[in-house]
Each structure stands twice: as structure tokens, then as C-alpha cells.
Amino acid sequence: MSARYSGSIRTKVVLITLVCTTLILAAVGIFDTYRLIATEKEKLSNLADVTAERLAQHLITPVWDLDTDRISSAIEAEMLETSLLGVVVYDENGTNVMGAKERDHNWGVIGSSGNIASSYAQATAEIRTTDKTIGSVAVYVSDRFISKTIQDAVVNEVIRTVAVNAAIFFVLVLLLGKFLITPILKLAEQASEISTGKLNTVIEVKSNDEIGMLADSLTRMQKSLIVAFKKIRQNNRSNEQEL
Description:
- By secondary structure, the protein is α+β, with helices and mostly antiparallel strands.
- The chain contains 5 helices and 5 strands.
- The longest helix has 57 residues, at 2-58.
- The chain is rod-shaped, with a radius of gyration of 39 Å.
């Protein structure tokens, strides 16, 4: 019976602690995930702006010289950044495409007509000489790889939660056994001995916590029983003498 109850106490304490820990870690993980998403999206927006400005500077001479080969080379160099979905370079009127690249379904770089859709972020920058605008460049960024980053973060969070819970489980089992279950079982055995009439049983559990309070209560009950039995014996002797 004692073993069953001791297991019950241990199980309840461990389960409550693990549930609380899991909920806390889950809340932290959800917060970190949302923060990661916001950070990654901000990075993509910044990438579009920075890439557009950089390309606008690099394309001044090729656009001025109408050198489509150099324009194409500059675009391909920027497309080494895998988050870029496409780049389009326009003339000074913004109507004619001077060069364009985009991603295909396999995420390879191919030529483009300039009609790029389904991008997460877009940035445009003017291509300017010292005194006039000679063209513009539009940069399109994809959020395709955010899902992979988030997936990795979630997996890491799950691994962290499992590892923390496992550590807490083993520590709790050891500590509960030493500081809670063992003293309670000892008190239960001593109380059982007292209940069978062994009133001289020594209460050995000494503690300054609730278990110590329980031991003190058991000691007081033991003393009360000793006094009560003495009175009963005295009364019995008095009755016998009267008879």
C-alpha cells in the first residue's frame, strides 16, 4: 500500500512540474518563433532595398552605354543571393526592359520578360548619373526559405523542451525519493508500528519542513496514547481492587 501511495505522490509532482515546464517552454518557443519570423521578414525587406541601391550604382555605366551583356552579368552576380526572386532593369522611361532575370521552378536563374509576380518584398531604385535619371532597377525578394528557417527553429525548440523535461524528470525523481518519499514512508512505517501497540517506537524523522511537522504531530499522538493507556490501566487496577 505504501509503495502505491509513494508512487502516486511522486508521479503527481513530476507530472505537474513537467506540464508547467512544457507550457512555459512552449510559450517561450512561440514567442521566439514569431520574433524570428518578424526578424527574417525584416531582413528580406532590407535585402531588397540594399540590393536595389547597390545595383543602381553598379549599373550606371552599363545602362549609359546600353551594354546589355554587362547589365545581364551584373544581374546574375546579384542573383547569387538565393532569396532574390528576380531583378528587372528599365530604361529612363520605365517602360522598356533592358535586362531581367528570375527564378524558375527549380530555383535556377533564367531570362525574364520583366513580369515577376508572387514576390514577398520589392524595392526600386533609380539609376542616375550626376545630373539625370537614366534608368531604374526593380528587385524582387522571395520568402521561400523563411519556412525552412522556421522549421529548423521549431525542431530545435522541441529538442530543447524534451531535453529540459528529461533533465527535470530525472532530478525530480532523485530528489523526491530522497527528501520526500523516503521520510514519508518511514513515518508511515512508524505510525503502523504505533497502531499495533508498539507505543515505544522512536520517531526518527527530523526535519524543519512540513514532514517535520507531521513527525512532531505523530510524536504528540504517541505521547497522548501512552498517557491514555496508562490511565486506562490505572482505572482497571482501581476497579479490580474495589472488587
